[in-house]
Model the fold of this input.
Amino acid sequence: MLSRLVILEDDKESISTFSSSRMYQSRPVPVRILQVFLLFFLLALGICIVSMNMIRYFGVTNMVPTMLTLQPCVEQDSIECWIRPPSRLMHTMNDTELFWRATFVPQIKRYPYKRQRKVAFMFLTRGPLPLSPLWERFFKGNEGLYSIYIHSLPDYRANFSHSSVFYERQIPSQVAEWGMMSMCDAERRLVANAMLDLSNEWFILLSEACIPLRNFTIVYRYLARSRYSFMGSYDEDGPFGRGRYDKHMVPEVTLEQWRKGSQWFEVNRELAVRIVQDEVYYPKFKNFCKPACYVDEHYFPTMLTIQAPHLLANRSLTWTDWSRGGPHPATFGRNDITKKLFEKILESNLCTFNHQPVTLCYLFARKFAPSALEPLLAFASAFFGY
Done:
């Protein structure tokens, strides 16, 4: 019995010794884990540093905050946050995001707040606005009734003073080529940016060569009282009308539905939504209306005539002189600015307004060269009433 106890005691001691040795051997394991973890941490830190340098080098810093621009405001506990227009026109949204955001449409027609309807003046330009002093005079005293948006070449930087109505009114832009779909893209971009302000009810497309023919009060009342939007849309035979139609546009657009009209339009908010949200007619016009089919003369007139003909007045509010022939209208310089010219523009017209015959048919005119600015300013009060 004693020998058995000794053996058990010896075994117990050997087991204790073995357990102690196992315990001492397991101590280095956490150190190895820590080393591996530290290695991965340093590797991740290195990747982050390299990525940041690559982003800085390739100029991709604008891609991150896109989602932030889609949020109307941080505090969403009041109606103010939803109706407040953007504080800055420059943003990081691409066209797809912008058009999606702009076409948020309230389904209840009655507004739950006092809404002051405004006119969005949208300038499609290559760069400067040489006639801006004339427009400054036109806008003066009518603050709160209008908004201004400028689409220029992407690398152009305007130099308006802080007191100018055009100060910081440029929107994110892209190159627009005459007669190409990029021109309609620019127009849709202007409309979409203007739609972000819920107070904008009427949208007028203008160029740097346009001038206002009437004072602001007359323009505002004319738009507010009209039951129709003003976009030329007519069926023209010959090579410059139906001759530009491509049979590949079927079934979305048939030859009988093909329309032509002036690029310069005025539309209400309902039609503005249609212009921005379109995904049906856009690919057809992009693929099958290329020079000598000038898409800016056909896309919107055709689409809106198909979708909402009862909302169109089928005429433009912008006067142009095509009497000299050619692909572009006449341009008027310093020596052309006479009383006779504006009598011709303002008085020798007859059109319908809400189905009634009127002589006030045009609110704007083009094309006017920079040299025309001085005489226009001199005669604006007598000719235009501002």
Summary: The chain has 13 helices and nine strands.
